[in-house]
Automatic annotation (TrEMBL):
Protein name per its UniProtKB record: Phosphatidylglycerol lysyltransferase C-terminal domain-containing protein
Domain of life: Archaea
Domain Phosphatidylglycerol lysyltransferase C-terminal: 23-294
Organismal lineage: Archaea, Methanobacteriati, Methanobacteriota, Stenosarchaea group, Methanomicrobia
Organism of provenance: Methanoculleus sediminis
Pfam families: LPG_synthase_C
Amino acid sequence: MLKLTDFKPVSLDDRDLFSRHYRQFPQVHSDNTFANMVCWNHYADYRFVEIEDSIVLSSTIDGVTAFRMPIGPRNPDLLDDVIDLALREGSDIPLRVLDPENEAWLRERYPDLPLHENRDFFDYIYRTEGLAELAGKGYATIRRQVNRFGREYQYTVEKITEENISEVWEFLVVWCEWRDCDSEPILVAEKDAILFAVNNFFAIGLEGWIVRIGGTIGAISIVGPVNASMAVVHFEKALPETYRNIYKVITTETAAGLRDRYPYVNRECDMGVPGLRESKTRYRPAYMVAVYYATRADLEACCR
């Protein structure tokens, strides 16, 4: 029987373990990626257990714990064990489903179990070539804005390296002052997450790009792998009040740097923020990665 004490925090030392496991069982949602978990662990307390050729994940935010479907070969007994643990130790929403394969399996095993969409946490997936080229009528407005930026500013693009990463840190200090990162708890958590990413950039296995205007950094992106065909933009920061439309420039330049290796780029969820949802939709996603959850009441009714 699984116990909460079997789980241990996700740490930098676990990178190779997750890399090996995810090569065998590729992920699609950004929240399950190693980089996301290790960077945001101060906020979401991501934990895991290796059991019967699978990994089971949990997260705890503001004292509310939820578990995820096993990542590994289909194992009905292990799934039942996870559900039992979720009912014993989880919140009123104790089980979350972050990929279509596990959604299909859960519906197959428990056809009477209601699964509820969590639209705010659907990931947006784009064709990398589309974001890099901005071709066609659908991208006309964004393309004009990027072209205008190129006329207004002499800018250069470079990859983040060991030689310039200290400048990325300095830029983020400026960005946090502009964004007033200490004004809200979630911004404090994001500041800690992105600074952890920069401090451990190469140990985590991240890459990224810089947009400079006159030698000064105006925008950065921090990217990691999801699977062999998809990258994820974990962080994208810019100073739009100083450089109009610069967010659109770092978006397309990041895609240009990725397109030879990754057909798709994941730009994460919109968290239910109306402006963010509008912006992500405007970039014409190829598809979404849905997120579902099961409630305690439904699990008790259907699975016990």
